[in-house]
């Protein structure tokens, strides 16, 4: 961190963050929902310091006090948005539960290697105060409050609203959006205060996605395809950008990290496309498709065509590279986005997936004209499942990846991952000309956990990272 007396958490700028210390531990939510194992989800602490005697091992587990939560994504009580406030500390991890609608607040400040439960916010708080449920993305705000996007209402219908928590007590304050202005569906969001804007995305109605994916539900209108543009100051919804069939199920949204930037990217899962959104000269917002992963015609699968299913995307802190995972095809891609409108593929690596050449699926027509990849075996362990959640080291040189998407969908598409547990892998990144290479010496096998195989999901570094920190 840049020298500065009385600074708050995080870093002065994204480029300062790139000079931050190497990650030594990561936190991962581990999920037992849908696996048949009647145990509570937990927060795992994994040692990623190559100099450590416990490298590549889970060194601590913090079990939640309830069953069936579906821990999913996490956020901070304070990040680089509070950099100028010396009274703030990044010492609480916010853990929303996607299915139970509980929100756990975890103390990671007292002992970062052994987090402890600080507070539990019961679902009724969210239901009664906000008429919201299924909390997903958590971001701290420069004001000290915490904002959490939600997928639905307490009945499981789609409802894209936002709950505010007090940053000190973690009590639910109420809704961020105005009454009647919630989006039809919710999922992720990112704000850019210098342009007075927040953009949110859509997944689907919780009662339809909770048990697995049914393509008919897309045609019936139970999944989203829009971006929502919000006034950051007044909280009014200004625009809805319908991305259409080519933008079906827009999930992770990422502004460029430069707080002056007026553009970013969103990964659209079902259509396997990436859209660039941007501010126009007249001050409103538009979107254009800039990357498309073609479907592959297949035999031996549920449908005659298999989409890539872009699930997680992220941008390096210098805004130079974009990364995303194709959860069905099984590859991670790296794009040079120096030309924002024409991303250029510079790296690709296959890590499992549904196309492996010894599996039941046969590709009969591939627009990319590539052979089916061999299965990936690391340290004697076959990777079941496929790359999904991503986290990039601050310096951009290491990409960490886990294989679980959402427990019910894991069970549907990769039943062998339910049996074997998920894994965590690490990819070495060429940050000069581009390129991705699997680190064959790194593997965290969540199939060997004390209570049985578990599904590890999102990755967080204690000091912040490129998917949690926002600069204002």
UniProtKB/TrEMBL annotation:
- Predominant location category: nucleus
Task: Spell out the reaction equation it catalyses.
Answer: methanethiol + O2 + H2O = hydrogen sulfide + formaldehyde + H2O2 + H(+)
The region annotated as signal peptide is none
EC supergroup of this enzyme? oxidoreductase
GO annotation (BP), single: protein transport
* Pathway linked to the protein: Organosulfur degradation
- One Pfam family of this chain: SBP56
Per UniProt, what is one GO molecular function of this protein?
methanethiol oxidase activity
Name the domain of life this protein comes from: Eukaryota
Which keywords, in A-to-Z order, does the entry hold?
A: Acetylation, Cytoplasm, Membrane, Nucleus, Oxidoreductase, Protein transport, Selenium, Transport
Q: Per the UniProt record, which EC number(s) apply here? A: 1.8.3.4
Biological role stated in the UniProt entry: Catalyzes the oxidation of methanethiol, an organosulfur compound known to be produced in substantial amounts by gut bacteria. Selenium-binding protein which may be involved in the sensing of reactive xenobiotics in the cytoplasm. May be involved in intra-Golgi protein transport.
Can you name this protein? Methanethiol oxidase
Q: What is the lineage of its organism?
A: Eukaryota, Metazoa, Chordata, Craniata, Vertebrata
